[in-house]
Amino acid sequence: MSAMVALGATAAAPAAGAAADPQRGEVAFQKCYACHSVQPDETGLEGPNLAGVVGRTVASAPDFAYSNGLKALPARGYKTWTQAALDAFLTSPEDFAPGTSMTFVGMRSAVERADVIAYLASHDGRE
Amino acid sequence: MAMATRIGLAVLVLGLAAGAHAAGDVAKDEVQIFDLPAGARPHDVAPGPHGGVWYTAQRQGALGILDPATGEVVQVPLGDGSAPHGVIAGPDGAAWITDSGLNAIVRYDPATREVTRYPLPEDTGYANLNTAAFDGDGMLWFTGQNGIYGRLDPASGAMEVFDAPEGRGPYGITATPDGVIYYASLAGSHVAEVDTKTGEVRVLEPPTPDQGARRVWSDSQGNIWVSEWDSGQVSRYTPASGAWRSWKLPGDDPQAYAVYVDDQDIVWLSDFGANAVVRFDPKDERFTSFAGSDSGANVRQILGRPGEVWAPESALDRLMLIRTDG
Questions:
Q1: Nearest Cβ partner of A31 from B41, B128, B147?
Q2: Which of B230, B240, B237, B309 is nearest to B272 (CA)?
Q3: Which of A111, B46, B60, B150 is the most exposed place for a label (fewest CB within 10 A)?
């Protein structure tokens, strides 16, 4: 079994049962802010717009040129950004999606990841 | 063909010419690969004292110190929450680190092994600290990707933070031989020249729109070389004339991440698209590529000293050394 598959299996579990807090997640999202926005009309950054990303089809933001690493995820079983998939991605982007252009090394804290995902979930793109 | 050696495992790295001037060009430089602790995720590298090499172990919150003669590595923990991004050698012989996890500038003194933190002012917020450079007066200038740049007086510890024009984006920073400071704005797709007296900046727009200027480095004449992430180009800005010139890196889909100009005015770049370190000679406009030691090496920065060019393979936990004729 490859390391990648093993990671995918691990990612099926929720983020360590942490009590996710979107307000803490807003603070933690500052680590993402340089390249991403949750404001639906704010595009043209280095990373795709993340409004409504939780539950969204992987690599589907319009007008964004995804890396091969992201475009390969559906074929590996990650068709949508579930919370578990986002948790695995945020843990170590390069391990979860080899070839990703995202230049973030990852978040070590499961609580911080859960908070960020809760913050993203609170921005569904309809606000 | 260049022979590569690696501590613990022999690896062959090919240096192949590429691009429009490919015919007959073969790299003669020697490549050596050094293994680092698993999970270190080395982001930036800087030659240090006594032949040693510093690197930021971003994932492990430490400053790494490699002895290239033996391959021995020591990592100095920088504290809970540390995620160091950049490291440079200061005029005082210390390592100066931009630590995005600590939201602080960190100094490591190799003589005393003392670690000193200089936190950003509390009202700055999280800056996503990126990179630093010393100006001609010994002030440390730094960038924060969330939209700031700033300066630290090492003598007094006084720090000033400025809002960057166009907000988020400040990334790589460099000083010219005359001590002038320039930084690149990735999200802003521009280069900024800093007035080191007033702290104000002048925005310089490269000719290619939305090019994604990520890092900058000065050559010996004070010309500014820019690695363009989104356009896949390297560009040169000539301050004396205001002229720009750009060259596309080889390959189908280049993504120029790092740029460094060595003491011979050879330009070194990393290309995520080709998984390579690329040498560019401005004299004959020839590119020469050095493949990563494995797939997805992700070299995010390059730095060197005469005869040596160092490139951290961040995703592989390795450092690449290219020995040049220096």
A1: B128
A2: B230
A3: A111
Contact call for residues B126 and B146 (beta carbons, < 8 A): yes
The residues spanned by each domain of chain A are 3-12+22-121
Give me the residue label for tokens 């939201």: B103
Distance in angstroms (rounded) separating the CA atoms of residues B180 and B262? 18
Mean pLDDT, all residues of chain B: 91
Distance in Å, alpha carbon of A105 to nearest chain B alpha carbon: 7
Q: What is the CATH number of domain A3-12+22-121?
A: 1.10.760.10
- Residue B326 has a pLDDT of 56
pLDDT digits (tens, 9 = 90+) for B223-241: 999 999 999 999 999 999 9
Give yes or no for residue B14 having a pLDDT over 90. Answer: no
pLDDT at B250 over 70: yes
Q: Please tell me the predicted confidence (pLDDT) of residue B40.
A: 93
Q: Do B193 and B204 meet the contact criterion of CB atoms below 8 Å apart?
A: yes
Interface test with B, best of A32, A105, A109, A115 (most B CBs within 10 A): A105
Q: For residue B255, what are its two tokens? A: 């993504």
- Chain A positions touching B83 (Cβ under 8 A) are 105
Q: Name, in order, each residue with C-beta under 8 angstroms of A8's C-beta and a sequence gap of 6 or more.
A: A76, A77, A78, A88, A96
B273 close to A (CB below 8 A): no
Q: What is the pLDDT of residues A12-68, one digit of tens each?
A: 334 445 589 999 999 999 999 999 999 998 888 889 999 999 999 999 998 888 988
Q: Quick check: B128 and A30 CB within 8 A?
A: yes
CB-nearest partner of A105 from B59, B126, B296? B59
pTM of the entire structure?
A: 0.88
Question: Confidence band (pLDDT; 50, 70, 90) for B1?
Answer: very low
Q: How many CB pairs under 8 A join A and B?
A: 49
Percent helix, percent strand, percent coil in chain A, to nearest 5:
40, 0, 60
Q: Average pLDDT in the B104-123 region?
A: 97
